[in-house]
Amino acid sequence: MKNFAKLLYFIFFSVGILFIGCNQTNSSKKEETILKGSTSIFVDETLAPIIEDQVAVFENNYEAKIQLISKSESETVNSLFKEKGAIAVLSRNLTPDELKIFEQRKINPKITPFATDAVAFISNKNSKDTLIALEDVISFMQGKPVRYIKGLVFDNPNSSTVRYMNSLANLKTIPEKGVFSFKTNVEVIKHVSENDGMIGVVGVNWLSQPMPEMQKYVDNVNTLSVKGLTGNDYFLPSQNNIAERKYPLARDLYIINCQGYSGLGMGFASFVGGDVGQRIILKSGLLPVRIPTRKFTITKNNKK
């Protein structure tokens, strides 16, 4: 009889804990709205500066707290699959196979394109070369000697820049000879600023909006003009050249929201895609999806 009473107590206790847990989960979702509450966003490390700016303004305007988790592209995507995070910022869209995974989970990701940035090549200030041909970079990655390239420096073996360049060179992994990788764009810029002959591969946002402590390193590198695989002209990754599709290494940026409810993911994506968010993009040197409108007030001067 005592054992039965203990069993009955255990069942009621377990059900009570489960009920409380469910209520807490539902309560946390209710507390989070599109403009209020707290959440985490995983962001491709190459895009971190512009997203940090967006979050700072968003938090200043609304009762929201967003924790940014900066990771490589591979880790950022895996955060969605492993359900570590429900919101991610990437330099590519989800693939059909990736979308199928969410479809099987009965989740319909909300995908918001919000800007176009670029992969940039940098060299030490002491280098006389300020031009580089994309064909030469690809040849070097394929193991062919290129006179003016001593080495290529990437941020991370799992980064979006590595994936992007591997795709252009038809490679599955970066070669071991002459190609080096660190962990972050910060380390790449610092290394190139201190070593002649090395070509760094970074997200252009790290150059247009360097952190104060990085300014001295950015000042000691050249952003190279690139000749694409077609044509003979060289172009810098400027806002205008990206807009006119002249720069050959431009890429679109996306916010992937897999929350499945009306939470901060929806609110933040709307903010970034809206007028204020697009102005932040424009000011950063990247290309916004839509150019923010400018208002002029015309007044009449009645003085004769």
Automatic annotation (TrEMBL):
Keywords: Signal
Superkingdom classification of source: Bacteria
Domain PBP: 37-272
Pfam families named among the record's database cross-references: PBP_like_2
Keyword Ligase applies: no
PROSITE patterns xrefs: PROKAR_LIPOPROTEIN (PS51257)
Protein name: PstS family phosphate ABC transporter substrate-binding protein
Organism (species): Flavobacterium xylosi
